[in-house]
Amino acid sequence: MKQTDLAGIGIGPFNLGLAALLSRHTEVNAVFLDKTSTFHWHAGLLIPGTTLQVPFLADLVTMADPCHPLSYLNYLHQQQRLYLFCYYDRFLIPRQEYDDYCRWAVSQLPSCHFDACVTAVNYDRQQQKFIIESESAAGEKQTYCSQDIAIGVGTRSYEPDWLKQSNHPLIQHSAHFLSMQEQLQQCKQVTVVGAGQSAAECVLALYRALQPEQIKAGASIRWITRSAGFHPMEFSKLGQECFTPVYMQYFQTLTAQKRREISANQGQLYKGISFTTIGDIYNLLYERTIAGAPAGLSLYSNCDVQSVEVQPSGVINMTCLHTQLNQHKTIQTDAIVAATGYSHQWPQWFEDLKGTVLQTDDQNDYLINEDFTAVRCDGGKGRIFIQNAEIAKQGVGSPDLGMGATRNGVIVNQLLGKNYYQVPEYSAFQRYGLPE
């Protein structure tokens, strides 16, 4: 059994950022475990031409420690791309490069271990420590004894019932888009479901590849959503202030019920499409319909997918309900890309901690403190840090990359027992309490 001060479970950008900050603090012995064989950030959506939706400053460390050697700017410097980036003149960086940056950081962090699936987490009351069991794909097992744990298991693809029930190779979640893109481009009719950024990026990639000759021969893309339209994500300067430490601090002072109510109405802050992507799709539509040419792309809102059935011929029947007209329609397609988003699906070992270690509310949901520790019901000493908690817990900025380094700074301060990293008191022009 290996002894450690902190065991990080899951290595996404947030726990990777925590590992990066801790690399400067050797007095804290930490280990980070992930079930995948190597780091990749949304590998199925690393579409050429796509960018992050946050500025490059929202890297693993900069917002907490701008001089850290694992910053994005130092990555560019080490890659001899700093001048090239300077004249690239963009705040939003290529998604493929962000993925490469994270893997560059992983290569310098010996605390990060892949192919280590955490199978159980228990609290040993005698030792007052967590016992973490992991297993590799080859069956090799390892046990860790840790004072604290940091849970960063992230989210999983959300699959509606009609998607879960299908095993058709061309009915897939958008998380697998790149692996099926070549096959999709050979289909006559492709349907993309959803109205978020991922849906728009899949549509744009497919539409760009669709040649005029194919369109004249009847090939097309159908884009449908149950939403009222294909709306942009909030990207104004004052609107973005919800993604700041001061707003997160304010949000955590509200009652649980009020947090749920507020978060239920904040979808447009993070679920919409970027202005750039909307513009690229619209411009392409305009250019391709000159002189009455067929567009090759049709868009339908207020259409909720009810069922999907694969015919013996291979054609897919998709039945939709128009939520405003209250009418059903069955359409045919050769493939479906379900850009239906992501949701938190906690592993069983986390569910098993509820009621015994984790305090829960009347909905059997865990509770979280302002310092990102879960509330315990057993009086134990070990801390459970929660990364990327649900939005109703920490606010709309919880899954935002720009908040990761600041949250990790708060976590590291607790591990060190001192305020090494400063959380800015003045991070927004707005005030979220009563006027003075």
UniProtKB/TrEMBL annotation:
InterPro entries assigned: FAD/NAD-bd_sf (IPR036188), Histamin_N_OH (IPR031043), Lys/Orn_oxygenase (IPR025700)
The entry's keywords: FAD, Flavoprotein, Monooxygenase, NADP, Oxidoreductase
Pathway recorded for this protein: Siderophore biosynthesis
Listed cofactors: FAD
UniProt key word Lipid biosynthesis: no
Record PANTHER family: L-ORNITHINE N(5)-MONOOXYGENASE (PTHR42802:SF1), MONOOXYGENASE (PTHR42802)
Similarity section: Belongs to the lysine N(6)-hydroxylase/L-ornithine N(5)-oxygenase family.
Name the record gives this protein: Putative histamine N-monooxygenase
Organism: Snodgrassella alvi
